[in-house]
Amino acid sequence: MVADFYRILDSSSRGEFLGRRAELTALDAVLERRPAEARLVAVTGPAGAGKTRLVAQWLEEVRTRGCTVAAGSAEHPASMTPSEVLTSSLDHCLRHAPESVFDGLGAEELSWLAGLFPVLRQRWTARWPSDPAEISHVFGLARALLVRLARERSLVLFCDDMHWADPVSLEFLRFLFLDPPKAAIVIVLGYRPAQAGPGLTELVERVVRYGAAIRIELGPLTEDQTAGLLPAGADRLTRRLLHHDSAGNPGVAQELARAHGPRPELGHHPHGDELRSGIPHFVVPPVPEMRRLSPAALLALCAAAVCGDPFDLTMVAFVAQVTGAEAQTVLDELAAEHLVLPAADGGLRLRDPVVRAAAYHAAAPGWRQSAHTRAALLLRLAGAAPARQACHLEHTAIAGDTAGARVLTAAARDTVFTAPARALRWLEVAARLRQAEPDPADVLTRATALALDGRPAEARTLLVGLRRQRAALPEELRAATAEWLARTERWLGLTAEADETAHGEPAAGAEPGLWSEQLAVAVDSGTAWARRPGTGAPVDALPAEPAHRARCLSLLAASAWLGGQRGTAEGRARRAAELVDGLDDAALTGGLETLRWLGSTEAALGRREEAERHLLRGHRLVGLHGQRVLQRGFAVALAELCLSHHDLEGAGRYAEEAEQCAAYGPVAATAAGRPTEDPQSPLKLLSQREEQIAQLVSQGRTNQQIARELGLSHKTVETYLGRTFKKLGISARAQVALLVGRAG
Fold first, then answer.
1. What pLDDT digit, counting tens, does each position of 594-608 carry?
2. I want to staple 183 with a disulfide (CB 3.0 to 4.6 A). Which of 147, 313, 506, 587 is the partner?
3. Residue from 23, 25, 40 nearest 210 by CA
4. pTM, to two decimals
5. Structural domains in the chain?
């Protein structure tokens, strides 16, 4: 029987069970054989980790094996009654228990049990013990009652949310496991370790030490496990970002996925800093802990959500308009509820993006607007970075606020490589405030953001217009405009135009950015770079700045490989790798293509481990920072790497991602496109007709189109394609296209 179990389940969590298979197996092991004595199982993890969902799945399965299943949960301490966990867990079992369970018990004993279990008060008068000796006697009766319930069938009892457990329930569990009864009883405790009191922690540790308990800790899900919880329409980039933003927490991942709809646009949902300090673009119901907060604590939580992560006591007090002492008191309450946690770099943060969204939208719009105004004022007085101020100015600034426009523009410049979509929004707000023609430097920032955001054609239009004004531009801005125009033309596949732009400035040979673009145009078109007479910098005059030097060395290594100079390519790739590996992620965000050129060259040189490390690093960073224009290049490079080592499944995944990114930029013909140490093509396994059909599949033809072109039936084409999949060990048309492209 199930004891009102779904009363403690969120109905939306009941669906196909995915992930946590290892943990489910560990639970199964407890009941592999009928337990000879009572066992305790502690299932622990943070809020949203899936403790309830995991145990619910297990209880559904063990119920079919004939076990008696009972469940209940603790309530918040403020609303708790004595022995609440124990009584709520056993309520249904005792309500329907046969009379034989109570045989041999006297009236006084039944009265004591009725005092402990309210459901029995319908039969007997309740009596609560008045001294410790009587309490021990009542616990002994309850222990005997559990043994009777487990007499014929194993009894599995689930007590959820034990971090809020009442003292009486904890004391009973301590009593029970001082001398575990010789009966088939399994008691499962679900709780959050960070909120568990010392009594619960000590109890579990002691029983584990005695060998009568096991502990199952729910850590973060893997990326693949998280993907299984998300809508089928979500692309790989979106799945990866949702995994990152949820930190592998299934509850948070599912809420974020629901917020972004069944098929969000590729990688174009709010993530990263936007979730932590920007506009929460989704609304969720208040999390359960919010409903129990005092009015003052709820106000402080809303203020913290407006402030964004990280925040501190002073900021919350100022935004909420309370004293420092009052803010400290309510922050302690929020910390006790585990809604506010210490931030990694100091200060405080909200537990997760779901809590922030719930608190942000719980505040009235008018109050929220005023709160942003107060936050912006405090940050300006404190001399905070423009990006911190911009998070609030975009909500509050009004037309004519030129000072606010300057802050927003500076913030956009600071974040154009780490959050180009956000930088674009801030530039748009700044333009409305300024009500004047934008400064040429702002136009360049906007074009940079557009290009990185996957809109290079729009960026090129702006840059062409800006370049027409080059006579009036400072030399540095003129060179930067030419560099970014050449780059966007390269990303658009306009190789001749990009080459001409990169060589067209008088300072092209002395300007590192333009010179590296000359190299990039050649490498991405699959040819070795050749310096034009009178242009281009000498190879031994590389820029001193490490990130730019690494960029140039990576390009020179790729160019050397394309020119057949293996030894030179190896030397330059090693030097570039030493520089790249010594740089943190922040130093590379302005030139993430370095990692693609370097990784592709290393792959061509047969250095798989280094290639994989650099390509995966770039792939991760372009996703996290929303540089969508580069996503396809990394996906193709990784697909090529997988394919060269016969990992067709991995190649297919990245090929699918490359197809999804097709709108944001062409595939570059990098060094990895040249033959590696193993030139054998899997296509040689195919018959002439199978290879012919594979070629047509790679061109995007449907089965019906192929049938018409070859004069075959639709069924025959399907048969040939099935044989092709089987011979090549693949399962998707994208993988066929990749293999054909690889074979040339």
1. 999 999 999 999 999
2. 147
3. 40
4. 0.79
5. 2-217 (3.40.50.300), 223-271 (no CATH), 542-673 (1.25.40.10), 682-743 (1.10.10.10)
